[in-house]
Amino acid sequence: KNEVEQSPQNLTAQEGEFITINCSYSVGISALHWLQQHPGGGIVSLFMLSSGKKKHGRLIATINIQEKHSSLHITASHPRDSAVYICAVRGAQKLVFGQGTRLTINP
Amino acid sequence: DGGITQSPKYLFRKEGQNVTLSCEQNLNHDAMYWYRQDPGQGLRLIYYSQIVNDFQKGDIAEGYSVSREKKESFPLTVTSAQKNPTAFYLCASSAQDSFFQETQYFGPGTRLLVL
Predict the structure, then answer these.
(1) Distance of CA A21 to CAs A6, A34, B82, B84, B100, Å?
(2) How many Å apart are CA A55 and CA A85, to the nearest integer?
(3) Rounded to whole angstroms, how far apart are CA atoms B59 and A14?
């Protein structure tokens, strides 16, 4: 079992829908990152959080340390949100990455 | 503009050949990292450097080598000992060496293919 599991692996939705991507982890962590990888391969860091919730524009990230679970939500999704979303956790002096969730938003 | 550049975008390697991937940053970051990405897998750490003239092995360092002679530069050499080098390689940097607590900034990546 991977230390970081994301679900779903692939998600297709219509423009405007509310999107939720989940990340579960099995190790003790001090921080969790959400990253966005564009079709060309470049990666952008979206959030780093260790508790509670963070919001940036239409993106919201939450984490429940007790349940070892984090979610990334996208409100009013748009085709430009189409990308791979990656969860990474900071464990014992290293980052462990999930395999990513491929999101496609159709107009 | 500040950022991380990687070159080339595509690189082809022949059997038995060493190739070097370039990574440069002008963010004045102390820490730099090299990751490998394979289809359907998470990023895996190859090497990282917290400061000039020092670097540490990551999870999959075999068949790779690095140097950190300048703060701005962290080149990765894929040696002939790396038997399965075909992958997407990402370089990243962060402001401090606090073991991945800091936000990492990624370069655009280099795709390495074996001829």
Answers:
(1) 7, 10, 35, 32, 23
(2) 16
(3) 39
By C-alpha distance, the chain A residue nearest B89 is: A41
Q: Tokens standing for A33?
A: 């990152």
Query: What is the spatial distance between Cα B4 and Cα B27, in angstroms, rounded to a whole number?
Result: 8
Tell me the chain B residues in contact with residue A42 when contact means C-beta distances shorter than 8 Å.
Answer: 106-109
Residues in chain A: 107
* Beta strands at B44-51 and B19-25: parallel, antiparallel or unpaired: unpaired
B107 at interface of A, judged by CB pairs closer than 8 A: yes
Asked if the peptide bond before residue A107 counts as cis, ω within 30 degrees of 0, the response is no
State yes or no: cis peptide before B75, omega within 30 of 0: no
Mean pLDDT by 10 residues, chain A (107 residues): 89 98 89 91 90 95 95 97 94 83 97
The shortest C-alpha distance from A76 to chain B (Å) reads 26
Per 3-state DSSP, chain B is made up of helix, strand and coil in percentages (nearest 5) of: 0, 50, 50
- Tell me the backbone φ, ψ of residue A80, rounded to 5 degrees: -70, -10
Backbone angles phi and psi of A22, in degrees to 5: -110, 150
Q: Token pair of A17, please? A: 């829908």
Looking at residue B83, the DSSP 8-state letter turns out to be S
The reported pLDDT for the residue numbered A34 is 96
3 state DSSP class of A79: helix
